[in-house]
TrEMBL record:
It is a multi-pass membrane protein. The chain crosses the membrane at residues 47-66, 78-98, 118-142, 148-172, 251-272, 293-318, 330-356, 377-398, 516-534, 554-571. It holds the Pfam family Otopetrin. One of its GO terms (molecular function) is proton channel activity. One of its GO terms (biological process) is inner ear morphogenesis. It is found in: Cell membrane. InterPro entries: Otopetrin (IPR004878). Belongs to the otopetrin family. Keywords: Cell membrane, Hydrogen ion transport, Ion channel, Ion transport, Membrane, Transmembrane, Transmembrane helix, Transport. This is Otopetrin-1. The keyword Acetylation does not apply.
Length: 586
């Protein structure tokens, strides 16, 4: 009976309220640990990437519905969605910056290779042009405010605030390597990446639709076809006298706004890849500035290419609007210019690759997300123009007509494929080559003795091993200096009648090769700017030569161009940024 009562008492104690509280505390502690434990990095990357990709696909789906010009999905619906995404990004950037300011911990680790100052300066200039475009949009809304949605007025205001805040974030936080709240920050950064990608897609769609309407109008005026243009105009009169100027000027600023958003998304993607990353402090440093002596031929030829490109652009835009004969002459002029330009660029890139084969500079295999992204973007953005070029090759080969520009179009298309292949190889190899200073030290190493100097490096100053820990300064300096003097005298007597090619092949020639590489790089830099200007401001002979349109049909060929031309524009601007980095590194 007593034993039974004891067991009852033990059971009662086990299930008493106090015991239950202890069990719940243990369970809560385990749950808290499992929820706050560091989430696996790969799972967080995958989950946040899926979130961002679905955001982009939602926006693209709305854009495709809007492209049909129906009555259900309108422009204000798309702009409302984008505005909400920008507001969420603004809230995340504000929280991130406030938390960084309040933290008393040391400054976060920073990736020296992410977002160099000259890239951020270039993005600031593009952001200023985007702000001018927002001002034009606000002026357009003011003129038609009585008959258009208020979203069209709110959107440019939020976009301007988003641009200013984002530029501030890029200048002061883009190099941060986040080590706290990693999972949450991954979602914030990837949200910013895909918000900018969606803004890029919106700009590309608006600019392509505007250009396509102008092209249809031009075809109808020339009598080639009766294409209908679909342009939604406000159903009221403008209350000011500058509405037409605002709407026309917008499309001259679209290329800069498009490039701004795609470059920002690339920089934020590097920040996303850096979250939780352990930096190698031996390679994470800024490269010293290099002298740019001997630059003459590259800048002169580059400026000549730029001037000729501007001339071709002006002549093309004037003559393509006139008769059929002048339009064909303008298209022929463009292809002849393009063939000459691409041949020169192929030769320059090939010469750079040949120099790298002659030099024994080591390859840098260290982890660098920014450099890896540059290589991937070069290849990915090349696909658009390669598709366009091979479609042109097929159209030229199977065409029944034979205009004057038929074979120059074929040569231009093949050279465009070859030029991008060789230029990609040159840029990628330049980025992965480990720089050596003129004295022979590798990039990132400390001060190294003069390797290429016969007097200092080939003559051993000491004969034997000196244990500095057990010898005094006075005891070792005298004999060693005498031995070094004797060694130099013996070496000079032995080599007095021998010609040493070491200094000519290792010291002088690398300096000349670097000068050649710098001239090649600045020439390619100017050429890529020239080839960006032409399609960005309306010189697009792929719409006007009619070879591809006859082969693939107007709708299919327009779809190819609407995808390929934005990728080609991004490729040229990204090549400009990469070549400037190569110029600083050589």
């Amino acid at each position: 009976m007593v034993e039974h009562s004891g067991l009852d008492i033990m059971c009662m104690n086990k299930y008493s309220p106090g015991a239950s509280t202890d069990t719940e505390k243990k369970l809560f502690t385990r749950l808290k640990v499992s929820l706050t434990k560091r989430y696996p990095q790969k799972n967080a990357e995958t989950l946040s990437a899926q979130y961002g990709a679905n955001l982009l696909l939602i926006g693209v789906s709305v854009m495709l519905a809007l492209a049909q010009h129906g009555t259900v999905v309108r422009e204000e619906h798309l702009l409302t969605f984008i505005t909400v995404l920008m507001l969420v990004q603004l809230a995340w950037m504000l929280c991130y910056m406030i938390r960084r300011e309040r933290e008393r911990s040391p400054l976060p680790e920073r990736d020296a290779h992410a977002g160099t100052s000259w890239i951020r300066g270039g993005l600031t200039m593009l952001a200023l042009l985007s702000l001018i475009m927002d001002a034009f949009r606000i002026g357009y809304f003011v003129g038609y405010h009585s008959c258009i949605s208020a979203v069209l007025g709110v959107y440019p205001i939020i976009h301007a605030l988003h641009t200013i805040s984002q530029v501030h974030f890029l200048w002061f936080h883009i190099k941060d390597v986040i080590k706290k709240y990693e999972t949450f920050e991954r979602f914030g950064v990837i949200h910013a990446v895909f918000t900018n990608l969606l803004l890029w897609c919106n700009g590309v769609m608006s600019e392509a639709e505007h250009f396509l309407n102008n092209h249809r109008r031009r075809l109808t005026a020339l009598g080639h076809a009766n294409h209908t243009t679909v342009e939604v105009e406000p159903q009221c009169n403008c209350s000011t006298s500058v509405c037409s100027m605002f709407s026309t000027s917008l499309y001259y600023l679209y290329p800069f706004n498009i490039e701004y958003h795609i470059f920002v998304s690339a920089m934020l993607f590097v920040m996303w890849k850096n979250i939780g990353r352990t930096l190698d402090h031996h390679t994470n440093h800024k490269r010293p500035s290099t002298r740019s002596s001997g630059l003459l031929l590259g800048p002169v030829l580059g400026l000549l290419a730029l001037a000729s490109s501007i001339t071709v652009l002006v002549v093309y835009l004037i003559h393509v609007e006139k008769s059929v004969q002048t339009r064909e002459a303008a298209v022929s002029m463009f292809y002849c210019y393009g063939v000459v330009m691409l041949v020169c660029m192929c030769g320059a890139s090939g010469t750079g690759l040949l120099i790298y084969r002659m030099e024994d500079w080591p390859m840098d295999t260290g982890q660098n997300p920014s450099r890896a992204l540059d290589s991937d973007l070069l290849l990915g953005s090349s696909l658009g123009s390669w598709l366009m070029s091979w479609c042109s090759v097929v159209a030229v080969g199977a065409s029944q007509s034979s205009p004057s520009y038929r074979w120059t179009c074929l040569a231009y298309s093949l050279l465009l494929v070859l030029e991008k292949c060789i230029q990609n190889l040159f840029i990628v190899e330049s980025l992965y080559r480990m720089r050596t200073d003129p004295a022979g030290g590798e990039e990132g190493s400390g001060s190294v003795p003069e390797i290429f100097s016969v007097a200092s490096s080939m003559v051993p100053p000491y004969d034997g091993i000196v244990n500095r820990a057990y010898e005094t300064q006075d005891k070792r300096c005298g004999p060693l200096e005498n031995e070094a003097h004797e060694n130099r005298q013996v070496y000079s007597r032995k080599c007095s009648g021998v010609t040493l090619p070491v200094e000519n092949s290792l010291n002088v020639t690398p300096g000349r090769k670097r000068q050649v590489l710098k001239n090649i790089t600045i020439f390619l830099f100017m050429c890529n700017i020239s080839l960006w200007l032409l399609p960005a401001f309306g010189c697009r002979p792929q719409y006007d030569n009619h070879l591809e349109q006859e082969m693939f049909g107007f709708s299919a060929w327009s779809t190819v161009l609407n995808v390929a031309i934005p990728l080609n524009l991004f490729y040229r601007m990204h090549s400009v940024a990469s070549l400037f980095e190569v110029f600083r590194k050589v």
